[in-house]
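Lay summary. Proteins are chains of building blocks that fold into shapes, and those shapes determine what they do. In this project we predict the shape from the chain. Here is one chain we studied, written as its sequence of building blocks.
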Amino acid sequence: MTEVGSSGAEQGGAIVPSATDQQGTGPTARRMVLGSQLRRLREQAGITRAEAGYNIRGSESKISRLELGRVGFKERDVTDLLTMYGITDQVERSQFMDMVKQSNQPGWWHRYNDLTPRWFDDYIGLEEAAVRIQTYELQFVPGLLQTEAYARAISSHGRPDSADDNVERRVALRMRRQKLLARPNSPRLWAVIDESVLHRPIGGTRVLRAQIGHLLELTTMPHISLQIVPLRLSGYSAEGAFTLLRFKEDELPDIVYLEHLSGALYQEKPEEIEIYSRALDRLAVDAETPDRSRQMLAKVRADL
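And here is the predicted shape, written in a compact code that computers can read:
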């Protein structure tokens, strides 16, 4: 990861990113950066979470959630914490309060909140802030690479002709997410998929053929790589789908995202990240090279 930009103000051992540093970073990541800075100030001041919680009329668990960026910040709470931590410089305090305002701004996906659970809302925010996205899929084409018709077939549970307004809005959300790959500061996307994905007729033969053509087009872009794990090696390196997100901010840990039917898990402990990083290394070896994977895509499309 790169270091926080030189325009950040460093005082009392904490680096406060400026508004310029925060461009392109979503509110979810901003909350995490702000929480990390407050934790550093608290620890430097020798104050416990329980003491800090009492100071803002809260609890130790509230401070823990704030420092992890799991909840929004109130300006009054941050003002009181800065005073408690001995931060008196008005410029530095103003920078912190600017971060509070930025972190509380709703993301573009806010209008879809009635369709998406909170755990996925957090993921979209992290995805927007990532500089590198590494994903492994066994059943579907990754969401960021799906065509509209392919996404509609999935969202409608295989019945696109009877798709209602909610299905269409879910498809619209997925298409909007993909815009991050076209922006000037787009993240690097490295996707690994199981070969069976290319033979699973999601939406029918026509939709699958168009989807494979879309993958061939996308993989001509320098920041998008796709590798295919051949059937003979399927399932050996990883047992389930996952995504590893990496960020430019030192305060943000690498995060592994695991989705299941009733929710999702976010793993960020170093030992957990190491396990999935090694799995990605094995997948890169087991999978065909990007060039060979493109040849496989072209052959499958021709055979459909």
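What the prediction tells us: The radius of gyration is 22 Å.
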